[in-house]
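step: validate -> pass
step: tokenize input -> pass
step: predict -> running
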Amino acid sequence: MLKGIAHLYTAKGKKVIRVDLSGRKPEQSTAAMLLGPSGYLRAPAMRKGSTFMVGFDEETYRKLLL
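step: predict -> pass
step: emit ->
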């Protein structure tokens, strides 16, 4: 799922984590940040180019979409 992704943003509550995946494979812990307690991809999830965002943070969405 993270193939071709250079930047990953995960939002949980008021905390946003940015992971730079440029030129390297994601670690197991990175993939775990994408999953919810059910084991499925957390929502909302959005991909724009080489950026992937999971969770919701209004400021980050504005930055990524504008």
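step: describe -> The mean pLDDT is 89.
step: cleanup -> pass
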